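go over this record:
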Amino acid sequence: MDHKPEDDIEKTRIINAGGFVNEDGRVNGGLNLSRAFGDHSYKKNADLPLRDQMITALPDVKVEALQPSDEFLVVACDGIWNSLNSQQVVDFIRERLKQGKSCVEISSELCDHCLAPTTAGDGTGCDNMTVIITTITH
């Protein structure tokens, strides 16, 4: 589940809190995400509860029944998702699990894979990166 500022629900909350989303999908021209811990400068509207601020830490909670085909769960921050799409991450993890690698090894390799070779460019691969991978045992 992605939380991008340009998504209708996210954009509506941002605008209602007094912010805007620019053409690059950035909140007030800065952050390219709409949910985060910290980033307190985007949470200063005293008339609104925390859940309704431009940036909120409120999670989406979704209950899913496990399927026999489910292999793993991956949770990552924008440093990963801005470099690879969901299917690319799934393919990356699946390939390495088949090689017998641990979730810790795969997490490290995924961060290395998303890391920019230099800081020149648009900033992709220069963000902090967090990823948690857990396998599902049936």
About this structure: DSSP finds four helices and two strands in the chain. The beta strands are 72-76, 131-135. The longest strand covers residues 72-76. Residues 72-135 form one domain.
